[in-house]
Design a protein that fits this description.
Layout lengths: L1 E4 L10 E3 L2 H9 L5 E4 L11 H15 L5 E4 L4 H32 L1
Parallel strand pairs: 1-2, 1-3, 3-4
Helix pairs in contact: 1-2, 2-3
Length: 110
């Protein structure tokens, strides 16, 4: 499934719309999300931002070995976009490292 987090923009065909980070995290926990596109500003910072989704993903990759989907940012907030793109780069590095560690461990155990 492809998940699109946004409070205002129209959702393209083939994408499932989410309005809040907790909705996206629930979809991610299902293990079925292949692509994720995030806005930052969702109209109520008390309910979270797109960056909060990235914090959850980073934690899940590190602690649980979660395999992240392909992630994009479509936020018009330029400073938040930069912060989110840096988080995505870190998530991808961490996920690759976790994958390599798993492969190394599987060879050691053989």
């Amino acid at each position: 499934m492809n998940v699109y987090l946004d409070d205002e923009r129209e959702t393209s065909a083939g994408w499932l719309r989410a309005y809040w980070p907790d909705e996206v995290i629930a979809f991610l926990k299902s293990g079925k999300v292949k692509q994720l596109s995030l806005d930052h500003d969702l109209g109520n910072d008390n309910k979270g931002t797109g960056y909060d989704v990235l914090l959850w993903i980073e934690r899940a990759v590190f602690i649980d070995g979660f395999v992240p989907p392909t992630i994009a940012v479509h936020s018009a907030n330029s400073s938040a976009r930069i912060k989110m793109e840096c988080a995505i780069a870190q998530i991808n590095l961490l996920a690759r490292h976790q994958c390599l560690m798993t492969l190394q461990m599987s060879h050691v155990l053989k």
